[in-house]
Amino acid sequence: DPWSGHPSRRLLAAGLSCCTVLALYAASSLRDPPPVWGRGNDGGDEAVTVLMWWVPFGRNQPLDGCERRFGIRDCNLTTDRGRQLEAQAVVFHHRNLMSSGLKNLPRVRPPGQRWVWMNLESPSHTRGLRDLAGIFNWTMSYKVDSDIFVPYGYLQPSQTPAPHLSMPRKTKLVAWVISNWNEEQARVRYYHQLKEHLPIDIYGAHRLKLKDNSVVKTVSEYKFYLAFENSQHPDYITEKLWRNAFTSWAVPVVLGPARSNYELFIPPDSFIHIDDFASPRQLALYLKFLDKNKSRYRRYFAWRKRYDVQQMFFWMEHGCRVCDAVRAAGKPPKTIQNLANWFES
Ligand SMILES: *[C@@H]1O[C@H](CO)[C@@H](O)[C@H](O)[C@H]1NC(C)=O
Ligand SMILES: *[C@@H]1O[C@H](CO)[C@@H](O)[C@H](O)[C@H]1NC(C)=O
Ligand SMILES: *[C@@H]1O[C@H](CO)[C@@H](O)[C@H](O)[C@H]1NC(C)=O
Asked: Nearest residue CA, atom 4 of ligand 1?
């Protein structure tokens, strides 16, 4: 357990002040997260056609970038239902499936064609799963054990490791962007406690206005970002971390699944977890300490010499990844019998 020596645990044990202990704390050695994907095209070079049955969120986009952007060759993405019979895989976005209904699934199902269930929401915001047993062949979601794993973002080893880090100038302390305010949610309850000890700037509906309408531009001026998920589920780590915090070079303070779950995807010293602290007050003290101690703060960026942050390119990349999966899978048939139990586990 690389975390057993964490300052907050020692702090509890020793009853010392936060900052005395932190000053004595030396970073444990880094562990690296595993690579998310190889670089395209293992297992055959037949061209693959993937049909998106619905255009997710009605958002059209160019479909010809699989090779250029992701190094995935001979991958033909289409939204033309007239090509269903030639498709090796058809992707169904859960949200559209719920609004259109099961009656709007294709009538014919060529043998060998994979039907892929795609969902990027958490179980707390996903309904209708119990009607979907025995229909799909593959799952595609942020869950690591999906047939096709599509996280919101991932790290890639740097092509050219940077000797020096150049981060945006930080003039502000803590930001949070939230649009769906709900007093019942863990993130809102935690915020109410944290703000007693620390000023927090909130952006979103009825709050502060984003600079140039851009989350990244706005958050880049802050040292810390509250990457609080709307619900807590294994592997459910969203653009709140990948875009709002990492792309803005703000240190993420996370509320989501357990620290050990985050560490499957990102280095242990790239983020601060609320569970690292006995109380919101302790967390606030730690953030204030980091605000004063530049060298300690900068340690949260050491991993950036080795990794680049990639955001998942919605939804072209999802389609391209299906081509890889089709080529890697070969022929064996599979049916997802218990979609609800798997997704909610
Ligand atoms: C900052 O923290 C480091 C330990 O992480 C400590 O060695 C150093 O003295 C601190 N600097 C200041 C100015 O408090
Ligand atoms: C994709 O499909 C189009 C239209 O059928 C075809 O012209 C093109 O050659 C295909 N490309 C690949 C890479 O299969
Ligand atoms: C896909 O699932 C359907 C429905 O259970 C099944 O009939 C078909 O054989 C499966 N196909 C593949 C290629 O797994």
From this structure: 23
